User: Which sequence fits this backbone?
């Protein structure tokens, strides 16, 4: 994620990368995790975090294999970024 931020000059949401590259949207977001925390739903938070780690690993593997990953830009357009991982 840090490499992509350096290349593009801004952070990319994990969801944007997951949808565009893997066709796999995230299952929740940080706001949902905060709500779960307030509700004492620690297991849901753990599952959410594990899923994010899995998606990040799959993105890395995709980039390593194909030399690029995709993201949805602020205008809703699918873009690619070359990587050397």
Assistant:
């Amino acid at each position: 994620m840090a490499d992509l931020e350096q290349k593009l000059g801004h952070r990319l949401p994990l969801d944007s990368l997951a949808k565009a590259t893997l066709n796999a949207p995230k299952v929740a977001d940080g706001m949902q995790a905060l709500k779960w925390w307030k509700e004492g739903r620690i297991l849901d938070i753990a599952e959410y975090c594990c899923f994010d780690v899995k998606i990040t690993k799959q993105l890395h593997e995709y980039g390593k294999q194909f030399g690029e990953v995709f993201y949805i830009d602020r205008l809703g357009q699918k873009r690619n970024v070359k990587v050397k991982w």
The helical segments are 2-8, 14-22, 30-38, 42-66. The CA atoms of residues 24 and 65 lie 18 Å apart. The radius of gyration is 14 Å.
